[in-house]
Amino acid sequence: MSAPAKDEAADATPTGATPVPDGTRPRLAVLAEVALVPVVAGYLAVVVLAALITAAASGTTPGGDPGLGQALGTGVALWLAVHLVPLTVSGAPLGVLPLGAAIGVGTLIALVARRGVTRLLTPTTEAHRWTSCAVPVVAATAAVHAAGGVLAAALLTPDSAAVPADASPATAGVVAGLLAAVAAGAGVVGPCGLAARVAALPGWLRRGLRTGLAATVALVATGAALLLIVLLAHAEAVAAVFTAVAPEAGSGAGLWLLDVAYLPNAVVAAVSWVLGPGYAVGTVSAAPTGATVGLVPPFPLAALLPADAPASWTGLVFALPLAVGSLVGWTLAPSDPDTATRLRSVGVAAGTAGLLLAVAALLAGGRLGTGPFDPVVVPAAWVLLAGVAWVGLPGAVIAVLAAPVPARATSSAAPAPVVGDEDEDAADEERVEPDTPEEPEQG
Q1: Confidence at residue 127, expressed as pLDDT on a 0 to 100 scale
Q2: Beta bridge partners of 376
Q3: What is 68-105 written as a DSSP string?
């Protein structure tokens, strides 16, 4: 029986071909899909968007000449911009890049990576899901995006007819690959058992991380709400900038999309303003404690920059981060009876919130030409210190003072009934001894 089976296996493999292990081809197909789909989909999306905006602004069709050529050239520069790669446009540096577009690209990468890991998980890879599934997916995604960044930067030339832009291939490869690695890593941690890893952490660390993430979300929501209020208050000024800069439908649509892409940058600047460090656009600066008025760029969101010194009641805005820090302390107060453990949780929460906000502040600013609007600064170091202080100090005070008093044992509790001697005798009488069978007499 073994010989025919051996012959059949030999016939199934072509002569001179190397046998392919089971699951190799599907695995390679999954990794190729995970690595290539976000790159291709992202480039096609920006090309279509550029073609539509160019056609609407110039009156040509998206497939016409020079509409398609301009769209293909513009798509390369836009692909780099949405991956947060610094550019040089017409000889002027552009480092303030749209966080909204980067968040969209990162979400796409994370979803595709999550799907890829789910397809790679099998009973044989379950025990080694991190090394056999997560690492290959993240590595493939980062490598292809890094190669795409290098290629896109090499295709750009300063004297290009479509887009006079330029970028460093080395910088493009590192930045695009790093963004893809972070996004893919965020997508694979769920299917690969992040919950189990987090559950294995010490309780005080786990609670601190969770509360720190909640505090970050609360502070970002506070900045977004403040930005919305200011936007509604200056709606006429924003509309006037739209009318002056982009009166046509096509250019207006492009400017509107540009505003949406830069909206997260404005939210991060608003959070920095709430925390105290504020922000600066060239010579213009804004903070609750003071402001410097100057020339603002012709951009709708720039209409929200201060036109005069802040009012005397502006300092009341510090009640918002103070409330967030107090809620952190109130949440962690009943977490542990030990004061030092509660303070460690508060410290982790403050560090988490400050670090996340500092990274966002670092990404929100950058170079903006070489004129009066350069640079756009959201001071990451000061945001880190302010975030840690606003979350940590009130959180520590509330966590110590609001700790619940441990319940004392009451002395009025009824004693346990004691079995007396008479009860024990009665119990012995009620006990029935089992009958033992009598042995038959021998005789």
Answers
A1: 57
A2: 281, 366
A3: HHHHHHHHHHHHHHHTT--EEETTEEE----HHHHHHH
